[in-house]
Structures are given as C-alpha cells and as structure tokens.
Design goal:
761 residues, single chain, 5-stranded mixed sheet, globular, mainly alpha, 7 strands
C-alpha cells in the first residue's frame, strides 16, 4: 500500500492534466461542473490525439516540455471563455455602459446549505465509488510489478518505445514494436502515459493510469445519470454501483488490462452526457421554431463534442462504435419525432422532412459502411471463436468476467439482478413509483442564451421526479445483443458486427456496464422511493392520530445511506474477494495463473540487468518466457519487445526463433547475431502460456547448449542471462538509436513479414 501512496503525485498530476484543459471550455457551455469534469478527459484525449499526429509532421519531439504547455494554454483559453460566458450571462452583453466591472458581473450568490450538502454528497459518493474500484488493485498489487498478460505487456512496451523514439503518432509511433515498420495503432493512452513516465518507471505509471481511468469512469457515470434523471438517489448510487462492477472497471483495469480499449470505454459516459445535453438544447431550439439558427448556435458545443469523439477514436476506434451503440436509440427517436412533425405539415412544409430522413439514414448506413471497411473487418478476422447460445444468453443479460465464483460474487450477482429488474420496471413505465416532471426546463426552451443556473444543481435538487427516458433500456438491449453475439456460435453476422471489438465479449461487456449502471442506479432510487413513501405515509398517519399537522415528509437521506450500505455490505464490497483474486492472478508473481511469464526471482534478475549489462546491450529471448520485460524493467533493448515476435527482418527472425539452438554449428545463426548486434541470450525453461507451448512456437530458443559459447551473467528462478561469445566480437545493436529506428538486419535477401500484427488483439 505504501508503494501506491508514493505514486500519489503522479496520480494527481495525471488527473489534473486530463481534466483542466477541457473543463474550462466545457464549463462555459455545459453549465454543469459535474458534466464538464466527466467529459473533460475525452476533450484532453482528443487534443492529445491531434498533437500526436501533428508533432511528427513538424518534427517536434513528444515529451512533457512540448506537450504540457499546449495543454496549459488550452486550460487558460477555456478559463477566458468561461469568464466571458459568465460575464455575458450576468451583464446581458459585453458593454459595461459606465458600470464598474465588479458590479457588472455581480456577486456570486452563495449556493446555500442544501445545495452544498447535495454537492458534497455527490462528490463523496464519487470518491467512495473510486475507492471501491481501486481497493483490490491498491491492496493486492505491487505497482512496480508488470501485468503479466499479453496485451498489457505490449502496451507497456509501447510507452517505452514512445519515450525513446519521441514519436507518439498513431501512424507509426509504435514502430519499435514492429521491428521498425510504421503501422497504424491507436496511441492515445500510450501518448498520455508517456508524458508522466520515465524509462525506468513505465510499469508504475501504467499501473497508476488504471486508477486514473477508474476515477474517469465513476465520474462519467455520475455525469451521465445526472442528465438522464432528476433523481438525486440515482445520481448518488451510480458511482458506487459503477465502481463495484466486475467487468468495468474490475476486469478491464485490474486483470485483462487492455488499457487503450478500457480508456475508450471509460470516456464514453462523459461524452454521452455532453451529447445528450447538446442534443436536448438543439431539439428545444428546433421545437421553438428557431430553425437553422439552432444549428449555428450549437456549433461551438458541436466542435467540442467532435473533439471528444476524436479522443475516443484516439484511445481506441471501438469506443466510437460503443458510443454509437449506446446513443443510437435516442438519435433515431429524435429524428423520427421531427420527421413525423414535418410530415404532419401541409404543402411545402413537408419538404422539411427530407433532411431528417437523410439524417436517419446516415445514422444507420454510415456505421454499416464503417464496419465494412477493410481495416475494421481485419479486426473481425482475429481468430476468436464463439461458444454456445446458452453461454450467450447467460452473459447477455448480466455479463460477468471469468472471476472466481465465490459466495460474495453470488450475492453481488443477485443484488445486481434485483436492482436491474427494478430499474427496468421504472424505465419501461411499468409502475408509477416515480413521476416525470410536467414542465420543461426554461433554459432549454429559450432560443437565445442558455440558462443562468447550474444544471447539476437544478437536476439533482428534485428527487421526487425521475425524468428517466425509456431509451437507456433500448440501449441496454442493443448492448446485451452484442454481448450475446460475442459468445454465440461463429457466424458471418458475428464477425461483421463485432469486428471493432475483435469479437471479444469482455470488451463489449464493459460497454454494456454503462447501460447497466444507469438502470441499476434508477432501480436503487426506486427502492429508496418506495421505502420513503411508506415511511412518510406511516409518519403522517401517526400525526393525524395525534391531531397534529401531517404536512410533513420523512427525511430521505437515512434511507439512501441505509440502502447503499446494504448493497455494499451484502455484496461484500462488490465481491472484493473475487476481485482480489483476479488482481493477484496477473500481478502477484507468487500467485500467477495461466498468464504468468516471470517469477518473483526472475523479475528481480530483470531489474538487476540495468547494472549487469551495458546500456547498448541487445537481448534475445522468448517474450512469453519473461524476455518481454527486458525493456520496461531493465531498460535494455530486446530483439522481440512484444509477445507476437514481430520483426521487420523476417528472414533473421526465422533463423533466431527456429535455429538459434544450433549457434555452435550453424554459421548463419552467428551471421544474424552479428548483423543485428545481439549480445545476450535470455534463457528460460520450457513451459506453457495459456494453451501455447513455448518450445512449439519458438523451438530455436529452447534446448540451447550453453556449456560452450556462452558466459553466465546472472540468474533468477529458472531464468538465466548469458553473454554470447560463440560468434566472437559482436558490435552491440541496442541503445537509444535502436529504440528509435527499430532493429533491422543489413544482410542481403532479408524478407519482410507478411503483414502487421497487433498487440492489442
């Protein structure tokens, strides 16, 4: 735990850098600080994505000294926009007309004790939700240990490559991992983490990023629920429920750790909240007859929304499809409403329906065209087979990752089912526990300026009303269908629709958790409302019997606290034992599961490599046997820095992986060793990684006779580090330049591999 506390400055710095550049701009337009904070990280990732593409074209290195000033200027520009927006709303324009500036802007009215309590409770539950999400990682994992999984290993080495190459472009910034070939890969997460990491702290910073994304996740969920319902109880429940879910964030950020994909998923709720706010205001303007001016007035907000969507794509392209899957229902419902309204007009007024019909077709057709693109369909060809319809059904309605099936997990599953059923009943209007408000917000009804009030305060101050639209239920069903399809038997439809997620159910379940959280939060609010109504009724009956005034209402907060405590305690803090076990299976070298690649002693040997080898050493070893951590833990160059052993020099790669064990007798092996500058051999015993037998994949790296032509440098556990002497003097091929240029053989006849492979499967 102490090791995590030592990384608190890094955590705070990353949060400030994520929130501040976008918060000021969004606060100027959204009026809600909660929505602005929830959506700001997507804005920042959009800015980082744009800079990561621009900087290589301008020959600007990717490092804190060149990126942070831009983020800082964005924050200052947003602060100025916020101040001008506030001045305009308060003063009715920009002219002072002889009035002192302080008098013109007015004195900010205190929010009052009630609103202060509401905001404290809101942010308090967000903190609690974050702690519930983060506790297994902080209590079980050592932040200095790498996540021993396929994808996280690739991503950590990706950050390392950016630190040395100073290039964060998605169009080749990770070329080091592909042997020097420049292929497309979304680098938003890598670019961001690289701003806070050193070459010797990549692992720690990557692990801290999991905590950062947990905070982004729970805050985004709170922001999303705040714009969907007026129920303060639902708002308070959302971050707590979202923090305990087993898929996102538990599986996605503490076990599976596909950081770019998880980043995109964590950003979706905040972007969705902004999209809903902007959409409502645009719809209100159009309903009030503002016409084309409605679109012109929302251009600034639309641009910031587009920048947030760019942040989603920059993190991982699948996030854009996730956002669309979640918002497709309300988009089509609104378009359908305006289409019907236009068709109901007489004469030429019906022509106004044509743009809306076109917009509806675009919402349906454009995603299908995008899915048909070769790049996306190449993702769908990843060899991940389906299962059965029974497993598909079991995962669809309440998705769950491959965690230990403990008693606490069973209780947490039951509680989720109950909250989900209650939320579905309320959302589907199957009862009247919560009434919808009958008056539209006046701020949304005006065509000129947006309202002066703080939306968040306005929304959460009316707990009797739950303006919960029905479409989140439709979104849940859409995402449940996609999850089911991921576990269903193989089909052309499965490959086509699930290509953005590599046909991986664990990726889609994280997105489904967004809709689940909304429904379960509303379900929790319905339960609280039911008990509150019964309590109030009983209290009034007692007062009538005593001849007292019965115009009273029972307090709501004891029930909110009580129901929340029951959910947290009965679920054992969200099945924390199962979540702890999941963390240990990939982080703790003494408790590793099938994913284990390096023991505790082997990790210690890797860390000593910084002192046992020269800085320009080049290490050859099987990456799935621990050699993949040479770069991130030892700071030394590896021939194969990612687990798929992709190298630009296909001929040399084949010689090494198939025939290195013949180094004493095969002169071609020594020729490759000298050409590439390989100085050391990382030896490990044969074994299995999941269902992969190491020696079957790379037989040349096993059964090597190290009794001659090798000098023992160090050992740890079953791993040994040898200096290669069998080939005579070798000019080392490692060092900083190798990181920048990739390892390429100069031997004639070298062949390129058939095609790019992705580490993020």
């Amino acid at each position: 735990m102490l090791a995590w506390w030592m990384l608190l400055p890094t955590l705070l710095a990353m949060l400030v850098a994520l929130v501040l550049p976008g918060f000021m701009w969004l606060r100027a337009g959204a009026r809600s600080s909660l929505v602005a904070i929830g959506a700001a990280p997507a804005f920042t990732f959009g800015l980082i994505t744009a800079l990561s593409v621009l900087y290589p074209a301008l020959d600007i290195p990717w490092e804190p000294s060149t990126v942070m000033p831009v983020l800082g200027m964005s924050a200052l520009g947003g602060a100025a926009a916020w101040a001008l927006s506030y001045f305009r709303r308060v003063n009715g324009g920009f002219a002072l007309n002889g009035v002192p500036f302080r008098e013109a802007i007015g004195v900010r009215v205190p929010i009052g004790a009630r609103q202060a309590a509401i905001r404290t409770a809101t942010w308090g539950t967000i903190v609690v939700g974050f702690l519930l999400a983060a506790w297994p990682l902080m209590s079980v994992a050592d932040p200095a240990n790498p996540v021993q999984q396929w994808d996280p290993t690739f991503h950590q080495n990706g950050v390392h490559a950016i630190l040395y190459g100073k290039d964060a472009s998605p169009f080749g910034g990770l070329h080091e991992l592909y042997g020097g070939r420049r292929v497309y890969y979304p680098t938003g997460w890598h670019a961001f983490v690289a701003l806070f990491a050193r070459v010797d702290s990549v692992v720690q910073t990557a692990n801290v990023s999991s905590l950062v994304l947990m905070a982004v996740w729970v805050t985004g969920l709170a922001a999303l629920v705040s714009v969907l319902t007026g129920s303060r109880t639902a708002l308070l429940a959302a971050p707590i429920i979202g923090g305990m879910l087993p898929n996102m964030p538990a599986d996605a950020l503490t076990m599976y750790n596909q950081w770019p994909n998880s980043t995109g998923t964590a950003l979706v709720p905040g972007v969705a909240a902004v999209a809903i706010v902007v959409g409502r205001r645009l719809a209100a303007d159009l309903s009030d007859g503002c016409g084309a001016r409605s679109f012109a007035r929302r251009i600034p907000q639309g641009l910031f929304l587009l920048l947030g969507c760019l942040g989603l794509v920059g993190a991982h392209p699948s996030a854009a499809f996730s956002l669309l899957a979640f918002l497709a229902a309300p988009l089509l419902m609104v378009i359908g409403f305006f289409t019907r309204t236009s068709l109901a007009r007489e004469g030429r007024g019906q022509l106004a329906a044509l743009p809306w019909i076109g917009a509806g077709l675009a919402v349906v057709v454009l995603p299908l065209i995008a899915l048909s693109s070769p790049k996306i369909q190449a993702m769908g060809r990843y060899p991940r087979r389906g299962s059965s319809w029974s497993e598909a059904f079991s995962h669809a309605l309440l998705p769950y990752p491959p965690f230990a099936q403990t008693t606490a997990m069973a209780w947490w599953t039951l509680i989720q089912v109950l909250l989900l059923i209650a939320g579905i009943i309320v959302t589907a209007r199957l009862h009247t526990l919560m009434r919808r408000p009958g008056v539209r917000d006046a701020a949304d009804a005006r065509c000129d300026l947006d309202g002066d009030e703080d939306e968040a305060a306005a929304l959460v101050d009316n707990d009797k009303a739950a303006p919960m639209p029905a479409w989140p239920l439709v979104s849940y069903l859409i995402l449940a269908f996609l999850t089911a399809l991921a576990y269903a038997p193989d089909s052309a439809l499965r490959t086509y629709l699930l290509a953005p997620w590599y046909k991986d159910g664990r990726r889609i379940m994280g997105v489904e958790d967004i809709a689940l959280t909304v429904l379960m939060a509303v379900g929790a609010a319905a339960i609280v409302h039911l008990f509150h109504a019964a309590w109030t009724s009983s209290l009034r009956r007692i007062l009538v019997e005593r001849g007292l005034d019965d115009n009273v209402e029972a307090p709501r907060w004891p029930l909110q606290v009580g129901v929340g405590a029951i959910v947290v305690l009965m679920s054992s803090f969200g099945a924390i034992d199962a979540r702890n076990s999941a963390v240990a299976s990939v982080y703790d070298p003494t408790r590793l599961g099938k994913s284990g690649m390096a023991s505790e002693d082997e990790l210690a040997m890797l860390r000593r490599m910084a002192s046992t080898t020269d800085p320009d050493a080049l290490i050859l070893g099987d990456p799935i046997a621990g050699a993949a951590y040479v770069e991130t833990l030892a700071g030394r160059k590896a021939v194969f820095p990612q687990l798929s052993t992709v190298n630009a020099d296909g001929a040399s790669q084949k010689v090494l992986t198939q025939r290195f064990r013949d180094i004493a007798d095969d002169p071609e092996v020594c020729e490759v060793v000298r050409n590439l500058g390989i100085t050391h051999f990382y030896e490990e015993e044969d074994g299995s990684y999941y269902n992969i037998q190491r020696s079957n994949r790379h037989p040349g790296l096993y059964g090597v006779d190290t009794s001659r032509g090798f000098e023992l440098v160090d050992e740890g556990g079953t791993a040994k580090l040898w200096k290669i002497t069998a080939c005579g003097w070798v000019t080392p091929g490692g060092g900083a330049q190798a990181f920048a240029d990739g390892i390429r053989s100069v031997q004639p006849g070298a062949e390129e591999p058939e095609g790019p492979q992705s580490g993020d499967e």
